[in-house]
């Protein structure tokens, strides 16, 4: 299973919070960021746009969502229309962000940077942030031994970084005040709890999804990976300043 196949699956399923901790984690983290009306926020790898819409609706920020997957962006457009929220949607690559330097006060990334085989995306976050702008990145991390071939198969990355390695990646791109807002074991129970507490009212599952070739294989592989390595997997939320 390539990460590309995995993202196709998420897009078909219309998944709104395809990141560790689910929507509950987004809500909790965003409440710590001092968001306010007029702030320019970029959701990098926004998927179907649930977090981006929430930031615009809840905090009145001027939000842009960018994602490389056209179906994700189509579903994000639909979500925003259905919830009467104004967000700018852009189909583009986080490794080559289609925005001028110093455009945003805050960049949010939720389970996106981990799929980059290199660190280019972090350099791009830095480039598009205004001076003293901030990044908040919520990602999977390793808390134990996970075979590299498994990580490559699922995430297309050579390695799942530990919390310390994630922080060093940000430091190496000149970010300062790099801190961990969260650093804990991954909990399937918590993710399930989030889905119960925060059901997604604008999830659009593609018709005929069950006929997609390889769908069940992709689902099964991902499920088996998470179940087998649950004790070795964690989530980190990093906040850092440019
Ligand atoms: C695991 S999903 C997370 C989506 C969303 N942030 C969320 O939490 O629901 C990863 C997202 O990253 C997007 N993505 C992967 N590589 C990308 C790239 N190079 N540029 C832009 N988006 C990318 C995928 O299309 C997918 O929507």
TrEMBL record:
Its annotated pathway reads:
Lipid metabolism; Phospholipid metabolism
Keywords carried by this UniProt record: Methyltransferase, Transferase
What is the organism field in this record? Paenibacillus thalictri
InterPro entries associated with the record: Methyltransf_25, SAM-dependent_MTases_sf
Write down the superkingdom of origin.
Bacteria
Q: Which GO terms describe its molecular function?
A: phosphoethanolamine N-methyltransferase activity
What name does this protein carry?
Class I SAM-dependent methyltransferase
Q: Which biological process, per GO, is one annotated for this protein?
A: methylation
Q: Where is the Methyltransferase domain?
A: 41-133
Q: Which reaction does it catalyse?
A: phosphoethanolamine + S-adenosyl-L-methionine = N-methylethanolamine phosphate + S-adenosyl-L-homocysteine + H(+)
